[in-house]
Amino acid sequence: MDGDNLFKGLKMKKKKKLPPADLYSSKCPSREILDHVTSTWGSLILVLLLEKTYRFSEMRKKIGGISEKMLAQTLQSLEKDGFVNRKAYPVIPPKVEYSLTKMGKEVALRVQELTTWVESNLHKVLAQKEK
After folding, report:
1. What distance in Å separates the CA atoms of residue 131 and residue 47, rounded to the nearest whole number?
2. Which SS3 state, helix, strand or coil, does residue 118 take?
3. pLDDT on residue 6
4. Helices (H), the chain
5. How high is the pLDDT of residue 99?
6. Going by C-beta distance under 8 Å and a sequence separation of 6 or more, which residues neighbour residue 49?
7. Distance CA 26, CA 126 (A)
8. Which of 11-15, 28-32, 117-121 has the least mean pLDDT?
């Protein structure tokens, strides 16, 4: 069998050509990614995962105020974006661990700079709001 016939009938997926990133364009997919990374819950999850690998219940306890539903949705978004790894173990009760991918660590370090700045300047911002 020659190479031409070997792949006959198989549909080769054609890579969709993406336009250049432009955050200011309403149609740019980068906005959705930015939303996932800079949302309150997305930011907190990314920075938390810089510490270590976490199980779902551990994250829920560490991040005050987050519901199970919101934690699950945010983790799914970050996983689809390629920032979070989800590893499920075939045990009972179920065991699932979350960690950062290489790209996730890169973005989490940048988000951490922002969260550190916010914590360091919180008193100034609150004082300004009181004026």
Report:
1. 31
2. helix
3. 46
4. 3-6, 30-38, 40-51, 56-62, 68-80, 102-130
5. 99
6. 84, 98, 99, 100, 104, 108
7. 32
8. 11-15
Q: Is the pLDDT confidence value at 8 over 80?
A: no
Residue 78's Cβ-count burial label (10 Å; 0-12, 13-18, 19+) is buried
Rounded Cα–Cα distance for residues 62 and 54 (Å): 10
User: How large is the average pLDDT for residues 110-116?
Assistant: 98
CATH dotted code for 30-116: 1.10.10.10
Q: Structural domain boundaries of the chain?
A: 30-116
Q: Measured between alpha carbons, how far is 100 from 59 in angstroms, rounded to an integer?
A: 13
Which uninterrupted H or E stretch holds 19?
none
Q: Tens digits of per-residue pLDDT, 47-61?
A: 999 999 999 999 999
Alpha-carbon dihedral sign for residues 76, 47, 42, 107: negative
Helix (H, G, I), strand (E, B) or coil at 63: coil
Q: Is the pLDDT of residue 103 over 50?
A: yes
DSSP classification of residue 86: E
